[in-house]
Amino acid sequence: MKKLGIDIGYSTFKYVYLNDSDEVIDKGYKFHKGKVENFYKELLDKIGLDDDDLILGITGSLASTIDIGKNYYINNSIALVEGSVYKNKSVKSIIELGAQETKFITNVDSSNNSNIKFFMNSSCAAGTGSFLEEQASRLFVDIQNISSYIDKATKIPRIAGRCSVFSKTDMIHHQQDGTKIEDILLGLCYALVRNYKANVVQKIL
After folding, report:
1. Is the pTM of the predicted complex or chain greater than 0.90?
2. DSSP states of 122-155
3. Closest CA to 104 of 177, 204, 10
4. CA-CA distance, 53 to 17, in Å (whole number)?
5. Using CA atoms, how far apart are residues 174 and 11, in angstroms rounded to an integer?
6. CB atoms within 10 A of CB 57
7. 83/21 Cα distance (integer angstroms)
8. Burial 171-197 (b: 16+ CB within 10 A, else e)
9. Which of 51, 78, 176, 196 is disulfide-compatible with 127, CB 3.0–4.6 A?
10. How far is the first Cα of the chain from the last one, in angstroms, to the nearest whole number?
């Protein structure tokens, strides 16, 4: 049977469409800008959901915005673990940095998942992708292009990451001092990692 997996996150709409042999027929990754229903309908028109020979699964923080039967919804964390183990059975820990949610899952075992430990961020956006996207937009840089910028960075300026107001202040000061955009973006990435470690990973200790 064909399989369609859809992940509707806080910022992006992702899907993968597999044939009977689990080979990829089609896949997509788009920033939905809140137009989740539009992207969903476009996808159904494209592949034809009426096919009786189709297994459908939907996950993600905004999956509930799609009005279909509950049997199609899959818990975010379960989908993350099962998908990771399917791709690599030696996986032991998983780091997820989403636009709104960040997770750290450890003690993963492909033969026994009874000892899995799960940690995630609070409601604060610090350490998430939305934090990075918001700060990058202040530099007029699309988040999809950040990697190409930081490849050219030569130093790591210190930027506050717990508060967007403090981050903006630090960024303005660095710009006034002549710090390159590439370096500021790298500093933002380090700020995100520090917050992830403080808000999620430290809960293990």
Report:
1. no
2. -S--TTSHHHHHHHHHTTT--GGGHHHHHTT---
3. 204
4. 13
5. 29
6. 15
7. 16
8. beebeeeebbbbbbbbbbbbbbebbbe
9. 196
10. 44
Residues paired with residue 13 on neighbouring β-strands, in sequence order: 8, 30
- Side by side, which strands form the sheet with 24-31? 24-31, 12-18, 2-8, 54-59
Output the six-digit token pair for 168: 């903006």
Q: For residue 150, what are its two tokens?
A: 């930081």
What are the pLDDT tens digits along the chain (205 aa)? 889 999 998 888 999 999 889 899 999 998 888 889 889 988 888 877 665 678 889 998 888 888 887 888 999 889 999 999 988 999 999 998 887 788 899 999 888 878 898 888 765 555 577 778 888 888 899 888 899 999 999 999 999 877 777 888 899 999 999 999 999 999 999 988 888 888 788 766 5
Contact 169, 186 (CB under 8 A): no
